[in-house]
């Protein structure tokens, strides 16, 4: 079967290969445009995140996908589940707001994981409060366990490359209708 597909690709020639490459690029750019559009609509730099730890159990479990919004003029309230990122940190953190203070125009927050014993002060890298600008968004919905695919690809990079290879091969050998 693979040899027949290779023979078919040889018959297509350069023009056919170029057409398949453009198809692949259009799929990639469409995905990027949808992501950027979602970022604009939700006012969040990352409107979809995967829970990577058990710090928010039983509200959210490892592998849950969270959908975020970040309304610009709506203050965060105690009890809101937020996703924030500390400057210099690579991974967003999903925790609940346990205190909120407003000074002039800046809202200051203190967060804590539901499954953690103490607050997040130690995670703030010397800051006393989390500022609104550090918050990526507020959780508005979730899909349980669907994010395990992302976790598996991060834990096993070979799986990521194999999946990309299979998708790329599929796009190259698919027949146009």
UniProtKB/TrEMBL annotation:
EC number(s) recorded for this UniProt protein: 3.4.21.89
Bilayer topology: Single-pass type II membrane protein
Keyword terms of this UniProt record: Endoplasmic reticulum, Hydrolase, Membrane, Protease, Signal-anchor, Transmembrane, Transmembrane helix
Compartment(s) where it occurs, according to its Swiss-Prot or TrEMBL record: Endoplasmic reticulum membrane
GO cellular component, one term: signal peptidase complex
Key word Protease present: yes
Bilayer-spanning residue ranges: none
GO terms for biological process, alphabetical: signal peptide processing
Entry's Gene Ontology molecular function annotations: serine-type endopeptidase activity; signal peptidase activity
Reactions listed under catalytic activity: Cleavage of hydrophobic, N-terminal signal or leader sequences from secreted and periplasmic proteins
UniProt keyword annotation of Membrane present: yes
Major location (coarse): endoplasmic reticulum
Function: Catalytic component of the signal peptidase complex (SPC) which catalyzes the cleavage of N-terminal signal sequences from nascent proteins as they are translocated into the lumen of the endoplasmic reticulum. Specifically cleaves N-terminal signal peptides that contain a hydrophobic alpha-helix (h-region) shorter than 18-20 amino acids.
Subunit structure of this chain's protein: Component of the signal peptidase complex (SPC) composed of a catalytic subunit SEC11 and three accessory subunits SPC1, SPC2 and SPC3. The complex induces a local thinning of the ER membrane which is used to measure the length of the signal peptide (SP) h-region of protein substrates. This ensures the selectivity of the complex towards h-regions shorter than 18-20 amino acids. SPC associates with the translocon complex.
NCBIfam families registered for this protein in UniProt: sigpep_I_arch
Family: Belongs to the peptidase S26B family.
Name assigned to this protein: Signal peptidase complex catalytic subunit SEC11
Organism of derivation: Naematelia encephala
């Amino acid at each position: 079967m693979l040899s027949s597909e290779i023979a078919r690709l040889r018959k297509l020639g350069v023009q056919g290969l170029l057409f398949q490459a453009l198809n692949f690029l259009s799929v990639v750019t469409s995905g990027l445009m949808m992501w950027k559009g979602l970022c604009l609509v939700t006012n969040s730099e990352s409107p979809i995140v995967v829970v990577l730890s058990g710090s928010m159990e039983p509200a959210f479990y490892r592998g849950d996908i969270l959908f975020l919004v970040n309304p610009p003029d709506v203050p965060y309230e105690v009890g809101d589940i937020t996703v924030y990122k500390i400057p210099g940190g690579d991974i967003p953190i999903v925790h609940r707001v346990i205190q909120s203070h407003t000074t002039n125009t800046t809202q200051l927050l203190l967060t804590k994981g539901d499954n953690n014993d103490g607050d997040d002060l130690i995670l703030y890298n010397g800051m006393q409060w989390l500022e609104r600008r550090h918050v990526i968004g507020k959780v508005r919905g979730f899909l349980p366990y669907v994010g395990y695919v992302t976790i598996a690809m991060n834990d096993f990079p070979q799986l990521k490359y194999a999946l990309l290879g299979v998708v790329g091969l599929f796009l190259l050998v698919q027949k146009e209708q």
